[in-house]
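Follow-up to my earlier ticket, as requested here are the two runs.
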Amino acid sequence: MAQKLKGKVAVVTGGGGGIGGGIAKALAVEGVSVVVNDIPRSDGVSAADKVVDEIKNAGGNAVASYDSVTTMEGGENIVKTAVSNFGRVDILVNCAGNFKPMTNIIEMTEDDWDSVVDVHLKGHFSCIKAAAAEMIKQESGRIITFSSRAAFAGGGGPRPSSPPPPPPPPEDGPRKSGGPPGMDLAYTAAKAGIVGLTMALAGVLGAHGITVNAILPSANTNLFPGTTPRGGMGFPATVFLDPEYLAPVVVYLCTDEAKDITGQLFYASGGDVCIYNRPLQPKSFIRKNGKWTIDELGELIPPLL
C-alpha cells in the first residue's frame, strides 16, 4: 500500500506517549520523518527516545527533541531540529500538555496559572510561530492544534434557584482530588484560547497553503486516565479509549485530500468523530431603532437566554 505522506517531515510535541506518541508512530507509517518532542521525566528517562526507537525498529525515520514548548527559544529549537535533520517541516502537531486540579480561583496562584497556560496556549504559539516561518517559505503546511471540550463546559445564563450539577472534567476523564469536582480554570481558559488561535491562524495562513485545524480529544492518557466509557455534552459514551485511535483523524488532516479543510474543530475519541459548528453562532439578535434603556433590557434579555 502506498504511503500517503512519503517524504514529508513532521514535528509532534508531547510525542513521548499517549495521544502524541500514537500520532508520531502513525505519521511514520505513512512515510513521514518525525521529530518526537517531549521533555525528560524527573528520573532522566526520555519518553521521546522510546517512541523514536519504536519508529526506527519499525523501519521509520525519527529523531528526538527534548526542548520545552513553554519558551520561544524552545519552540524555535524544536522546529530547528526538524530543519537540521530533515531539511524542512511540513506538519506540526501540538500535543504537549499538562494539568493541575485547581478550580478555586481564590486559591490559585500565579505559578499555578502560568504553568498550565504556558504549556498549552503559549506552547502552541511558540511552536506555531517557528513552524509557520518555514511553511510560508514552502507555501504549504499542516498545523494541528489540540483543544478540549472543557473550553465550552462552563456555565452561563441566569443563576438557577438550585445549584446546577458540576460540569464534567476535561476530556470527560476522572475527577481529580485537590478541590471541588470540575475542571482546572487555567486549563479551560488555555483550551478556549487555542480554539480562537486556530481559527485566526486558519485565516491568516490560508493564503500560503497552510491549513490549521483543532482536535478536541477524549482518551485514556497519563493526564486523564481511565477506561470507563465516557460521554456527555451531547455525545454517547465512547467505548474505545485507546489514544492511538485518534491518530487516523490527524493523519488524514495532513494529507493532500484535506488541503481545503481548515479552521475546523474535530471531536475525536475511539471510533467517534464529530465536526463542530464554529463557535459564536448567533442565538438571538434584536435591534432597536435607538438606544436601549436599562429597564427594556431587563425585560428583554432573560427570556432570550
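Run two:
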Amino acid sequence: MIPGARFEDRVAVVLGGGSGMGAAVSARFALEGAHVYVCDLNSEAAQAVSRHIEVDGGRATPLEVDATSRESVASLMSRIESDEGVLHVLHSQVGMPGAPGVDVSDEDFDRGIDVNVKSAFYPVAAAVPLLARASGHAAITLVASTAALVGSPFSPLYSLTKGAVVAYARALALAVAPDGIRVNVICPGPVDTPMLPQFFGRDPGANISDLMSDFVSSIPMQRPGTPDEIAGVAAFLASDDAGFITGVALPVDGGLTAR
C-alpha cells in the first residue's frame, strides 16, 4: 500500500479485471488500499491477477462474472452485500472492437451491443443500491473510447456502442448525484494491450503492423498509452480527489482528439 492510500478500507469492483487495462486498474486500486473484487468472464485470469495483488500485499477476491448478464451481475452484487455491505467503486473495463464496415451482420451487431453497452448498463443497475451506502464516497468509472468522441474510421458500430456509453454516463451522473454517487467515463486512445491489434487489419490481407504504425504516428505524443496510465486516471476519478467531478468524458489519448 502506498502512503496516503486513497482507497483504504474501501471496496472496489473491477469488471474485466483479468487482463490488460482492467488488470492494471485492479492492481492500482489494491495498491491504494482497496479490497478489489477482480471480476472477469475468464476465471483463471481473475485468479492470476488476484494472486499478483496478494503477493504485493493487497487484498483481492477473484470472481467469474459475465457483465452482459443481469443474473451474473445480480449474483455479484449479492456477494458484495453479504461480504461487505457497501460498495465504493464500480469500474467497468469490459469491451471489444466492433465489426468493420457499414453493413454488419445481426450477430455482429448484437454482440457489439451486448459487450460494449450491456456491460455498462447491467452492473450499474445492480450496484447503485450498494454504492448509495458509501456516504458520499461512491464512484462509477466506465470506459468508452476516443471513437465515442470523434468517430472511428474502422468501425461505425464501435463508435455507436461507445458513444452510447458516454451519453449514458452523463445522464446517469444526473440521476444518481442525489445519492452521493459520481459517474465518469474514460475515453482511451490506442493503448498497448494484446487487444490493440484487433482494431486494425480487419480486412483480408491488411498489413496490421503498417496500419498500427501509421495510426500511432498520427498521435501527437507519437506513442500508444500504457495500461498503467489508464489505471492512474481511473484511480483519480474514483477517489475523493475528484470529489466534485461527475458526468465527464475524459480523453486519455496523447492529444489525439486535440487536433
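The only thing I checked on run two: The beta strands are 11-15, 35-40, 59-64, 89-92, 138-143, 181-188, 249-252. Let me know what else you need.
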